[in-house]
């Protein structure tokens, strides 16, 4: 009886031999970068766009990842399809950026071939000049990617045999369902180019350990006495992870027991520092109850109750579960490159991708999300622009502090005195978990 074929794992250069140590070459080595291009990005679910970027049939968005371009198109029945963005004739890129397809037709700018929204070919100029076998309808359809939606986003996978999206995102998706991620819409959306590997850039947001040194204004005078143990870290299968406070966010977090002024000061600092997670609207609600909290009652509890009351009256779908409330002020990471940091009815969201073909540059996108009154959601979401990481007009203090450290890290990995990152067992476990999952993809 013939033996079943076996598949040996592919050797991975600079592999994770120790979960507490990350070889520095993973952040700049060309061979490692090429393996990611070949064995990670074409075979993993990744967030391609938000649904409000393509609100109407015929709207499209181009999603780029390394040397691949994917065209995401809203269909007549409100569903979404995703196509490899190349003409079936001579590979011309069909669409760039985002927009609306004239006459609901995808048109090649080179020779005028056309396709319907569903990818079926609708016109070949000079068709009588081609052999019939070159124009079989199924052969000249646009090549599709797998596509699905979750969390008000469109997700694509170039692998036709990939497992279902919800299976791949579990259990992280369920955590974000608990905070109402599907009800969040764009408040603003910007991007920057960082001189850092995509993994280096996102790892800065996998832990709260950096707050005391990077964001001293958020410690409110505690400095190095700011507690590292007030955050709980969990690494999941599939490369996902989360961190969340060990405290009840409705009781004020780090400001607990310090009264109204401490709670309001923290809220103001977060709003002014990034205009995300805490918005001016929230601060206005909190200030409105400052002088109406009876003696002995916890101000933070009263402030959060006022926020829920406001949301109910305004028709804002702020209905997190108790477990969802515990995630406020924390983060959920969805492998390989997407993050959501929820708080109140808002969230920060990050997507980090390689920039072009440079292992040491990345596109870092930032969304500030919020919940709008039902029926009053904004129109089509659009990128506000690409801004330098030190642009004080377009980035608040908090992201500027992070961006500066990320670039310094990337320079540091080239130091002859540095061979590997050494990770904390507790608060940097998400970093290790991400790298282990990455190796699993590269070795398949």
Automatic annotation (TrEMBL):
InterPro entries: Rieske_2Fe-2S, Rieske_2Fe-2S_sf, Ring_hydroxy_dOase_asu_C_dom, Rng_hydr_dOase-A. Keywords: 2Fe-2S, Iron, Iron-sulfur, Metal-binding, Oxidoreductase. It comes from the Bacteria. Residues 45-156 form the Rieske domain. Its cofactor is Fe cation. Gene3D superfamilies: Naphthalene 1,2-dioxygenase Alpha Subunit, Chain A, domain 1 (3.90.380.10), Rieske [2Fe-2S] iron-sulphur domain (2.102.10.10). This is SRPBCC family protein. It comes from Actinomadura rugatobispora. The lineage of its organism: Bacteria, Bacillati, Actinomycetota, Actinomycetes, Streptosporangiales.
């Amino acid at each position: 009886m013939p033996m079943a074929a076996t598949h040996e794992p592919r050797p991975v250069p600079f592999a994770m031999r120790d979960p507490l140590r990350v070889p520095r070459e993973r952040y700049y080595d060309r061979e490692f970068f090429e393996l990611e291009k070949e064995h990670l990005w074409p075979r993993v679910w990744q967030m391609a766009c938000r649904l409000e970027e393509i609100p109407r049939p015929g709207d499209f968005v181009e999603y780029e990842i390394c040397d691949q371009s994917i065209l995401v198109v809203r269909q007549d029945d409100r569903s979404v399809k995703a196509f490899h963005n190349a003409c079936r004739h001579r590979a011309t890129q069909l669409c760039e950026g985002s927009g609306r397809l004239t006459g609901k037709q995808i048109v090649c700018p080179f020779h005028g071939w056309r396709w319907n929204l569903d990818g079926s070919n609708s016109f070949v100029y000079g068709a009588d000049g081609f052999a019939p076998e070159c124009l079989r309808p199924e052969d000249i359809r646009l090549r599709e990617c797998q596509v699905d939606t979750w969390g008000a986003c469109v997700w694509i996978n170039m692998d036709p045999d990939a497992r279902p999206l919800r299976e791949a995102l579990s259990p992280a998706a369920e955590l974000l369902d608990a905070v109402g991620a599907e009800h969040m819409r764009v408040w603003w959306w910007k991007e920057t180019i960082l001189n850092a590997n995509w993994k280096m850039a996102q790892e800065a947001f996998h832990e709260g350990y950096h707050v005391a040194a990077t964001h001293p204004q958020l410690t409110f005078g505690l400095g190095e006495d700011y507690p590292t143990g007030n955050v709980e870290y969990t690494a999941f299968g599939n490369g996902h992870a989360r961190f969340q406070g060990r405290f009840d966010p409705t009781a004020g977090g780090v400001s607990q027991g310090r009264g109204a002024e401490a709670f309001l000061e923290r809220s103001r600092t977060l709003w002014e520092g990034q205009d995300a997670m805490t918005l001016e609207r929230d601060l206005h609600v909190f200030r409105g109850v400052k002088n109406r909290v009876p003696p002995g009652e916890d101000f933070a509890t009263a402030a959060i109750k006022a926020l829920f009351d406001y949301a109910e009256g305004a028709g804002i779908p702020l209905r997190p579960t108790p477990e969802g409330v515990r995630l406020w002020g924390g983060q959920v990471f969805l492998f390989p490159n997407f993050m959501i940091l929820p708080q109140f009815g808002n969230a920060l969201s990050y997507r980090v991708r390689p920039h072009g073909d440079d292992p040491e540059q990345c596109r870092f996108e930032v969304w500030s999300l919020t919940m709008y009154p039902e029926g009053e959601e904004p129109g089509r979401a659009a990128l506000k622009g690409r801004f330098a990481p030190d642009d004080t007009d377009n980035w608040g203090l908090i992201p500027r502090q992070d961006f500066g450290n990320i670039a310094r890290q990337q320079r540091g990995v080239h130091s002859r005195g540095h061979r590997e990152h050494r990770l904390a067992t507790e608060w940097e476990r998400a970093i290790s978990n991400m790298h282990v999952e990455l190796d699993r993809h590269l070795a398949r």
